[in-house]
Amino acid sequence: MPHRCVRLLLCLGTVLAAVEARSAVGPSAESALLDLSLDDLLALEVSGVGLSAEGARGSAAIVDVLTRKEWEAMGARTLVDVVALLPGTRVLQRSTFTNAFTSLHGTAINDNDNHLLILVNGLPWRTSSVGGSNRLLYDAFPLAVVERVELVRGQTVTLHGSNAVAGILNIVVRGDAASEVMGRVSNQGGVDGALSMHWGKGEKGLRLTAAQQQGLDAWAIPDGTRIAANTPIAGELAQRGRSLSLSARSGRTAIDLLGMDSVASTIGTFSSPVRPRAQDRSALAQVQHAMPVGAWVLHASGQHGWSRLDYDTFKGWSRRSAARVALESPADGRLRGWFGTQYESATGQVDGLFPRWSEQTRSVFAQAYFDLRADWTLGAGLQWQRIGNGFSDVTPQASLVWAPASSPWHLKAVSGRTFRNPGPAELFSSASFQRGNPALVPERGQLDALELAYASGEWAWSGRLFRQRLADVIVLVSLGAGQREFRNVVSADIAGSEVQLRWRPTARWDLDASWQHIARADDTLEPRDIGKLQLAHFAEGWSAGLAVESAGAAATRSTITPARPALNPPASGYAIARAHVSADIGAWFARAPDRASITVSVENLTGEDVRQPSAGAQFNTLPHRSDRCLWLGVAFPL
Predict the structure, then answer these.
(1) Predicted model pTM
(2) FRET pair for 177, CA 20 to 30 Å: which of 354, 387, 422, 632?
């Protein structure tokens, strides 16, 4: 405890001294958000649906957008916290799955978060070790560089390809000219910090950001809990993420460079008091350019990523490169769309798990939109892909949108096939505890969704129906004698509904409530009901927010086969609450009014969770103890 107090005093003293030395500039940071009406917030442009940005309301997909000021009002400090605020999502802690973090439409089936594709500024992030794990992004991606996040369901596979089974999460990097520094500490030893500097004018310029987030995961298991042959479990998972990013914008060209390092260690679990740490390091470089070609627009992009794994049981590396070229027709025609091609190449090796491997994927895609009438738009898309092992597939997509400019209502229907390509661990593993299977085929899915929404004045409402079907899902199947093999053996059929209500009586109050009900969920770990409530108040000089999430018992219905063990879902759900207050302290200093803010955030997690023991495949229910955490931070613009 003393060292935590010292950290807090040093952090506050350093920042307050810097604030006192600064001179006053400009209006408060909240003014931009306070000027937006509810209609303006719901009409924000999204860039994760197509090649060019378009309004979320009229786009050919069901889209939820969360802005930087909205998650700051709720005290979100990591990408996991931000995703948890979006309607229809369920964030899975590491005590459930080691790599899976976000469940959308009840797709939490295996040990990897590979059914929700993450984009960085509209380009896919696909780690190569296990075919789609997003753990490093959740651990280390710096929120200091993020402007907004977009959750997109429907019309995703045509352009973005593998892993967009349930949808995509597009992380949009900031384009404003603000610079700031922040620091934050918790009563559990967490230390966060970020420095973000911008040079240039408006959206044209250069942004350099260095960030760290460190703390304990929000789970802890009581001493004495035993699973799998009386193996005791007690402890928490310590995590630290560091990142360095550089973003450049100039007209039609965007360049993003990102380096991340994540270290995690389990404290006091199994038979060891401290488990050796697991470290992930990754670097990503991507460039995008758009140029007019007559009345059309040529879009070209390139990516190169590198990652290194340093775990207690294995070490490895991987590289991935991708290039995409597409032509987009004029946006003012009755018939519009785009077509193009994409190439991906990946290689890597993990000592003790699988040997050196390489793979190439080629795809051709096309998307068209046709205005049936002034208010109706029909969309159709197609992607053909060929994987290096000789497998090829075609994935169609379709949409129908009714969004009249003169009406507050809109209607969207989306349908299409989805897929996920097997990862190298699934194809080539040769470890003693698991075997790869080169005969694996991609997982297949079908997503059908319908949305009816209303937005006018201070009210916004939406109702959604969805059905997510999965086939050939890849899981580990027991072979006996302690060995398991990856096979395409699981199918799932998930159906449910979702209602969201948003009320903003003034620019200073914002209420957002959502409820998701799963009517059917085979072989998943999705609760039957998930409710979320977020309330924020914005004022000159201070703001406050409250976020609550509650879930009931799982809606799982096991389809038991000889190759697939039964699931034992939790008997009850969980509850998470976070309260956050931010206040300007710049007015305390005559030379620096409206310059700095102090933030206080309180989190509480309680309920039950599920963990898969290492000795078998049977899921067991483990009770949480109530976990409370207090964060205190300071921030000021430069």
Answers:
(1) 0.86
(2) 632
